[in-house]
Description:
Chain A has helices at residues 54-62, 84-89, 107-112, 127-140, 157-171, 187-202, 214-220, 243-251; strands at 16-25, 28-38, 43-47, 69-74, 77-79, 92-95, 118-119, 124-125, 175-179, 206-210, 223-228, 231-237. Chain A is of the alpha/beta class.
Amino acid sequence: MQAAPVPQATTGAPVLGLQNIRKEFGGVVAIEDFSLDVHAGEVVALVGDNGAGKSTLIKIICGVYPPTAGRILIDGSETRFSDPADSQARGIQVVFQDLALAERQPVYMNLFLGREAVTGPFRRLDRRRMIRESEELVRGMDVRIPSAKSTIRDLSGGQRQGVAIARATHWASKLVLMDEPTAALGVAETQKVEKIIGGLRERNLAVLIISHSLDQVFRLSDRICVLRRGVQIGIRRTHETTNNEIVSMITGLT
Amino acid sequence: MAAKLAAFKAVDPSRYIVYVGFILILIGFSIVLRDDGFLTTRNLLNIVQQTAPITVMAVGMVFVLTAGEIDLSIGPIVAVSALISAIVLRENFWFLGAFAGLLAGAAIGAMNGLLVAYMRLPSFLVTLATMGFLAGVARWLTDLKSVPITNDTFNGIFGAGTLFGVPSLVMWTIGIVFLGHFFYRDSRYGAHVHAIGDSPLSARAVGIKVDRVRFSVMVLSGACAGLAGLLYSGRLHGARYTLGETDLLTVIAAVIVGGTRLNGGVGTVVGALIGSLLMGLLNNGLILMGLSVSEQLMVRGVILLAAIALTLRETRT
């Protein structure tokens, strides 16, 4: 990975701005006072132990949960998403850990799910176009699948995750959120997915990724943000910190 | 062994087994019943006409099953719709009667849909309950009496009439299958029906209105059952609470044998048509063979089991 200087605030407002986000579930505080900016072309890793509130944060950003308090800014303007469809319309896509794919549908239908291409006066599904575009997309991301017509169920875990990421990045114009995108993958597949994530930076998308693998976090990210039991412990530039520092921030032990 | 299995899987027999079965049974009956007038245009057309209501309901059921739901209440919807249209037809012209029947079916479907989609109750239990409730309604509506339909226009359109020389029941079959196939395979709506049956979570995640689609398939199924009620009452020149009573099993068998999965996400409308013709073929052939009713039931049961076993064996993983 290139160790180029972090492209901080190059174009003014960050793609994603979180200011003093707080989330309570029935009186239980899941996240308190979380603030973070993510810029275009930047990969920020969100780390922390189980139950630290990482997934909750992702769900707040994409509109699954509303925050109890705090502001979410997209390109500098305050935003409130009432559901995931809202955030998608603003160019935000999520890759979930449990792969939100329809398993018995072909790859191309998954890539276009909810945004199917249609043609003609009867608005027929334009399968040919969806298949062609899917093949280009998948080839462009170096995801090797037998064909865009393959059923998801017949693909390996890595291929599936490749499809999920291809979908997210195809429709994301600003920000991709990833919740442990390689948790279910083997070594070679993980490598491939990491390469894809690196490619997102080159496309000038902002990426916020949750990962349990610190090696991976150090390979991929520009900055690392640590959460512990809902509390934001700190943010470090990846090339200025060490594995040990991050581990002690996560665990609270020195 | 593994390679062999993989090759077997790639062909996916459940998609084609209905066509093979259909042709085999057609050939079998043609040979066995060659002297009994089985293989005549008239008899074959007759089969298509007899199965028209089944086919119409099967098309609705393909959408429901693909969406991951089920509608067990179609049988009594047939009876209630037919009775309501027959009652309305006593004093009104054909369109009003037909409209009332269809509306009744759709309204019952909407009731199912509300409970399933918006109250989040399982469709199996909801429609099991409405099935019982409606069976009561069908008996109560006319106090078990049958209602004759003397409106010739109605009986022509939904029964024995013809259009361009083609029997109207054949026309209805073709029309509904054509429309159903189009919306199922070639529309965004169809794609969403597939998606919500396959994985409601991922459908919701990409912004598909899962509840609305769920609601709509239940309405569609109710409307199809309503239309089936009209087709029965048009052919029989009257309605009775027993109409459609035994159709649920036939419809589900036709749809499943046709290649639609019971647990959602995968199906075919054309397969359901062939499946229901297969059921009609069996019915017709067994009668022509001179089997008694009890023998017919047993043979049909065994054939059905065999067909379902062949169709579903591979899809269980």
